[in-house]
# Entry
Amino acid sequence: MRPIALTMGDPAGIGGELTLRTWLARPGPVLVTMDDPERLTELAKTLGLDVPIRIVDRAADAVAEALSVLPVRLAEPAIPGRPNPANAPAVVKSIEVATALCLSGETAAMVTNPINKAALYQAGFNYPGHTEFLAVLTGAIGQQIMMLASPRLKVVPVTVHASLRASIAMLTTKMIADAARTTSVALARDFGLAQPRLAIAGLNPHAGEQGALGDEETTIIQPAIDILRAEGIDVSGPWPPDTMFTPAARKRYDVAICMYHDQALIPLKTLDMDHGVNVTLGLPIVRTSPDHGTAYDIAGKGVADPSSLIAAIVLAAELAGRRARAA
# Structure
């Protein structure tokens, strides 16, 4: 398989340590990371990690015997736990280079280390996060969907990086139906599920209690379910949000389509934080990411757990392999 492209993430966070520890764990695919080789070399020395760093000019030159690095230089030295907007251009460039490598076919997929959106915003970054930026870079604006996946649960939030008040205000039947369609196609193509089963969450307590606790279920959500069923998609709901994530309920569906960010991410992270993976659906490339943030409080302390990044790399390789076989 072609190498997996791995981005820098916020250099003040735990991304660098995760990259080093992941290489030591040998997750399988050959990795090529867009990062500052001097930073990684110094970080490995500080943490006592025996990771050989090899600078390469092309992704094709990446090798399994060392951590291969396509250099993206930082403007200033990274200080653990202290995000620096001066280094934001390097963070953005790392994402851009990895995306270009995937679009050209030089790498099989990309995995992104966590970023700090606030630090990027201070440097003029105009996107809510990775998902929206990647949609622009790949020409898939409006098609991108965020899915969080683990062996125990898959969830898709219909509204993502917005306040709860704004999320409720922007929710529409079309948004729900579009998210469900993209999810159904991706589960069949990339995850190998011939007939994916989608559970649509309600918005209100008890899924509205027949309108007594809110009418969004009848005015917005149910019409989307009706449209999807008419298209032949296996969809159920609206499910009461407080009971749809129990062990018994989860056996009845393959993915939960949730109405807002925390409705989706709280159960996923509660059930399987260490193995949760962020997958961007609807892109012409495969992109995954660990399901956690920059963890400034432990950056540079040598205690970061690479489990989620390893899971993201393994899943990226699996998805890319299915796409390649289906091509």
Observations:
- The chain has two domains: 1-142+284-327, 145-282.
- The chain has a mean pLDDT of 95.
- The first strand starts at residue 4 and ends at 7.
